[in-house]
Amino acid sequence: MEKEVLGKVPSTENVSFNVFKIQTKNKISVKGLNEFPRDTFEVSTDIKEPDALIIRSFDLHKEAIASSILAVGRAGAGGNNIPIEKCTKRGVVVFNTPGANANAVKELVLLGMLVASRDVVGGIEFAKSLKLKGAGFHTEIEKNKSKFAGNEIKGKKLGVIGLGAIGAMLANDAVNLGMKVEGYDPFISVHHAWGLSRDVKPASSLEKMLKTSDFVSLHVPLTPKTKNFLNGEKIAYLKEGGVILNFSRDGIIHEEDLLKALDTGKVGKYITDFPCSDLINHERVISIPHLGASTKEAEENCAVMIANQLMDFLLSGNIKNSVNYPDCGMECNGDFRLVVTNRNVPSMVGQITTLLAQEKLNILEMMNKSKDDFAYNIMDITGTYDKKIIDKVKKIEGVISVRYIPIKPVA
Ligand code: 3PG
Predict the structure, then answer these.
(1) 3-state class of 9 per DSSP?
(2) Could you say which of 104, 143, 239, 403 has the lowest number of CB atoms within 10 Å?
């Protein structure tokens, strides 16, 4: 889809531009939505032919992605509610906001460890259930409180699976609470490794970590590869009566295997932010209704971050924090910009640049990045733009989408 928009580019005079249309599919913090300048962006729940969507947990698998859509912005981390493969094949860039709600989720995991250790939930329910008044009420409280006694988390061992934004923060805070912490993450990023406390020990193996941890907390995204990651085989390694904390996604754990382990007491407690009807009333399960990121701060952080990433993408084609296309961005330069998505196969760049040369267009700067089977190109060009160039580039086999972004006003 072709857009004529002047965004973060050098000149602002005499350029005709369309207004980008952003459709929200969940309640998104107003602080984030206010980031969009209203002369260039229209933002609404009800919008025809949107250029981009902003969603939280809305299930996009359930509906067709309109052909007008260039980008999907997930104000949050998880992308399992988005048909990512389908989007990728169509050149639709899917963004998320890694880290923006990590603190909120981490705080809830800490709460999860505390409620697993001390029956605070049962105690509160007991206190509320008392019908007595005055002194009798207090006597009953004191008489029964020992039923709800528990343990401290200080000195216990926490095994963290996945040391991304949330896992790394949790590991560090658990150290500060006096816990022994081990982390397991074969794909840890340099950025997150740098931020880890030296007291967070790397697990020598997942099995060993599971065998020796009092608490195991999962922080991996749900993808086809991680589905049922924690299955019966791995659960068998757990310490007898160990606690599993799942604030990632329900599909990460094999539900039937978990239920068996809860029934036998192999798993002492299962604390999750993803309730499921088969486990909700199990005595060893505490379910929270997906409240991990539901704080004002996290909602604002995610909304502001996704708004800015989408604006940068729509106005200048730059990509930051996409789950399906590579990070790729540069300052706008030249007369106009072409952004191209294509299959990551040989001679794509050669064919595109040859075609531009045949059209007497000079590439001032360009960037080409790839991610798995797909690639993204930004080309800043000097010369006169002709709409026909878009159609010509599109005809090259392997090209998925082409977008024109004016940099200088067209005479
Ligand atoms: C996430 O994936 O970021 C969290 O699970 C929060 O999801 P939510 O934005 O739907 O609350």
Answers:
(1) coil
(2) 143
- Cβ–Cβ < 8 Å for 356, 399: no
For residue 321, give every residue at least 6 positions away whose Cβ sits within 8 Å of its Cβ, in sequence order, or none: 95, 96, 97, 98, 305, 309, 327
CA of residue 171 to ligand 1 center, whole Å: 20
Residues in CB range of 232: below 8 A, 6 or more apart: 254, 257, 260, 261
Q: Which phi-psi region, left, alpha or beta, contains residue 134 (left: φ > 0; alpha: ψ -120 to 50)?
A: left
The predicted-structure confidence for 252-301, as pLDDT tens digits, reads as follows 999 999 999 999 999 999 999 999 999 999 999 999 999 999 999 999 99
Judge whether 230 and 253 are in contact, CB under 8 Å.
Answer: yes
Residue 392 sits at φ, ψ, to 5 deg, of: -65, -45
- Name the residue range of residue 322's domain: 1-101+295-329
**pLDDT confidence band for 17 (50 / 70 / 90):** low
Number of domains present in the structure of the chain: 3
Distance from the CA of 235 to the center of ligand 1, in angstroms?
A: 26
For residue 123, tell me if it sits in a domain.
Answer: no
77 CA to centre of ligand 1 in angstroms: 6
DSSP 135-195: HHHHHHHHHHGGGG----STT-EEEEE--SHHHHHHHHHHHHTT-EEEEE-TT--HHHHHH
Pair (108, 225) in one structural domain: yes
